[in-house]
Structures are given as C-alpha cells and as structure tokens.
Amino acid sequence: TYVVTDNCIKCKYTDCVSVCPVDCFYEGENFLVIHPDECIDCGVCEPECPAEAIKPDTEPGLDKWLTLNADYAKVWPNITDRKDPLPEAKEWDGVPDKLQYLSP
Ligand code: SF4
Ligand code: F3S
C-alpha cells in the first residue's frame, strides 16, 4: 500500500484524490489518509502530491504512518474530488515534525 505522511499535514493539496482509481482516500480536517486494504498499489498518486507526502510502505521507517493511515481511514469520510488546498499550505510545506499539528 501507499501511505500519506507528515508533510501533508496543514497543506492538504488533494491532487492525490483525483487520480486514485479506487477512491481510497479519507479526509480529516488538515490531513488525508489512504485505506491500506483498499489501495491497489498503482502508485499514480505519489508523483501528484506537490508536498511529496505520499510514499510506498516498502520505504523504511513508515510503520507509524501506516498505522495512522489505517486507523483514521476507518473513521474519516471518503474524499473523491480535488478541492482547494488549506489556506496556509505554502507556508507549511516542508516544515518538519508536523504530526503535533494533526487534527484528529
Ligand atoms: Fe490510490 Fe493508487 Fe495511490 Fe493506492 S497507490 S492510494 S490505489 S492512487
Ligand atoms: Fe496531502 Fe499531498 Fe494529497 S498534501 S492531500 S497527500 S496531494
């Protein structure tokens, strides 16, 4: 599966959702997640993210993010259409350790 990681937080560009063939993105207030059981590993979303926040779970060190994607995918609503990024997306792009700002 692919996972959404740190740099999506407070940016939420949503370019990723418009290309997903199986609509497996779920939306929180300032972050999106991928449902790991629904993702078919096609990889098309990865290059679409301007914040480079989407990674394959084969990359090392992503266990925490995989768990977080799986947990929130169960409770957040599905999102299938692109929308405007969060207003301060540009300012937050690249800020380190954004997990502390994640709205549950
Ligand atoms: Fe959707 Fe493909 Fe991205 Fe998985 S890898 S979330 S199926 S676009
Ligand atoms: Fe987030 Fe990137 Fe999608 S910032 S909403 S993973 S396009």
UniProtKB/TrEMBL annotation:
Q: Gene3D superfamilies given for it? A: 3.30.70.20
Provide the alphabetized UniProt keywords.
Answer: 3Fe-4S, 4Fe-4S, Electron transport, Iron, Iron-sulfur, Metal-binding, Repeat, Transport
- Give a short account of what the protein does: Ferredoxins are iron-sulfur proteins that transfer electrons in a wide variety of metabolic reactions.
Q: State one Pfam family annotation.
A: Fer4
Q: Which NCBIfam families match?
A: FdxA_Protbact
Q: Which residues form the 4Fe-4S ferredoxin-type domain?
A: 1-29, 30-59
Matching PANTHER family, A to Z? FERREDOXIN (PTHR42859:SF2), OXIDOREDUCTASE (PTHR42859)
Output compositional bias ranges, type Basic and acidic residues: 86-96
| Coiled-coil residue spans | none
Q: What is this protein called?
A: Ferredoxin
Name the coenzymes or cofactors required: [3Fe-4S] cluster; [4Fe-4S] cluster
Region: Disordered, residue numbers: 86-104
- Extract one GO molecular function annotation from the record: 4 iron, 4 sulfur cluster binding
Is Transport given among the entry's keywords? yes
